[in-house]
Amino acid sequence: MAKNKRQKVKHYNRSFYSRETRVKRGIGIVVLVAAVLAAAWFAAPHVLDWATHTWYTVVKDRDLEAESASRAEAAASSAAASSAAASQAASEPEPEKEKPLDGKAITGGSWAELDVTALTDEAAIRAAARQLKQQGADYALVTLKDAAGTVYYASGVAAAAQSITESPVDAASIAAILREEGIIPAAQLAAFTDPVSVYTDRSMGVHYDGNSLWLDNVSAAKGGKAWMNPFAASAVQYVGDLIEEVQGMGYEQVVLTGVQFPNIITRKQDFGASGGKSREGRAAQLTADIAAWQTRFAGSVTLWVSYPDALCTAATDALGTTGVSLGMENLLVTSSTALDADSRAALEQAAADAGVQHVVVHDAAAFR
């Protein structure tokens, strides 16, 4: 009988899960892990709060609710203080901003004259301005062209070429610093009392015997001086050009002196017009010159005409009439002695009757 042979059984390592089942199983594990992590994330603050509360209340023996209430009360108090401060700030008026200086204003304040030759640098200008301010001055009169014909700044006007001083000042800086210190700058210019510029442009001068310049004391050797001619259009234009130039440097107030004819009128003088031989003709010409300047600079420059008090109320050959009668809008009067109240009142009344809008009277001795 044949022996039964024992069959060998082969074992195979194989999974009884399909590929799809394994994928689903993996996804399930990932979802479970994510759920656990999410739960831990959301539970963590509560666990930390519980742990913190337990630590401070049990271990440290502190009352967290009391401390929380205290912090809330402090926060509320701080907020209330901030609100009160804001309310107080809103109720308080804002400080007024300083208004820019009106350089054309006529304030009725006091005037003072500066020595232009001493205004050589910023420190000197500022010191002089502050001294005027302490003294109560509102206007600083700066002579930029005097009766000797000297021009104290570097003028670009052609007829002033031979008149400029050897050491000109910085007129624009003077004006700017005066304004910074609260002082209104006013430029003073001599008009027809100019014995120098007429040699640069002879058409501006008073003549005799053709083109020769007339001198007020026979000859230059005897101290005679030439004069500008108020009838000459070139002379009137020259004065106007100087006004325009200094206005561009910051001087919105300009004071003209020497708006007159020579003090002595002779038959040898040639004014180029027959009217120069009569007082009426001279008065009419000065009135026309002043009107031309006022019209040219209306709205841009406050123009003053300045005379000594002796020329204001008495008719003279130099003016042909009284000074107050020449049609100026603003008159600055200087007096060699202090006027008493009655004399001042009479002068101001005469000016008002003649149509002068503003009158300033100064004692020349105190003017500086």
Describe the protein's architecture and organization.
- Keywords: Hydrolase, Membrane, Transmembrane, Transmembrane helix.
- With 368 residues, the chain is an alpha/beta fold.
- The protein has helices spanning 19-59, 64-91, 122-134, 171-180, 197-200, 233-248, 279-296, 309-312, 341-353, 364-367; strands at 110-114, 137-145, 151-153, 164-169, 184-190, 207-208, 212-213, 253-257, 302-308, 330-335, 358-363.
- The strands form three sheets. Strands 1-2-5-8-9-10-11 form a seven-stranded parallel beta sheet. Strands 3-4 form a two-stranded parallel ribbon.
- Strand 8, helix 7 (279-296) and strand 9 form a beta-alpha-beta unit.
- The radius of gyration is 47 Å and the shape is elongated.
- Residues 1-17 have low confidence and may be disordered.
